[in-house]
Amino acid sequence: MLTTNYIKCMELMQSMGYDYLDHEADIGITAWGSNLEEAFIDGAKAMFNVMVDIKDIRPKKRIEINCSALDLPALFVEWLNELLTQKDLNDMLFSKFEIEYINKEQNGYSLKGYAIGEDIDIEKQDIKTEVKAATYSGLRYETKDGKHIIQCVLDI
Known about the structure:
The protein is an alpha+beta fold. Helices cover 28% and strands 43% of the residues. The chain has one domain (4-155): 3-Layer(bab) Sandwich (Archease, Possible Chaperone, Chain: A, domain 1). The protein is built from 3 helices and 7 strands, in the order αββαβαββββ. α2 crosses α3.
């Protein structure tokens, strides 16, 4: 059964580069873009939009994000989890994301990017639900028709 938040998110996100997957206990996300960076950025937007309406988060502070992994799908999970870590460490919510680079290294991939947002203020922000982690469940990455498509399940 689809939750009200899920249905609202689906309606709001039809024109963006991400979507939500039906999942029994958690929330699955699929993100896409014309390049890998766009797909990762839209995945971050999808995750934070599960937690709060990101259009209400102002871009006041910029936090650097660094992560690495053995392959691109794992890098996506690491990116999302590092964003959640920085959210908790800095007591912030993010609405904009930038990726400076995704590099292929000798032992995998590395990413340097930024999360931009503001301090959490429950008086003015409508917090929907808490995302505990991005998981390897349902993790998939492919390129199709010139688009990079990546998905995973968020533990809520």
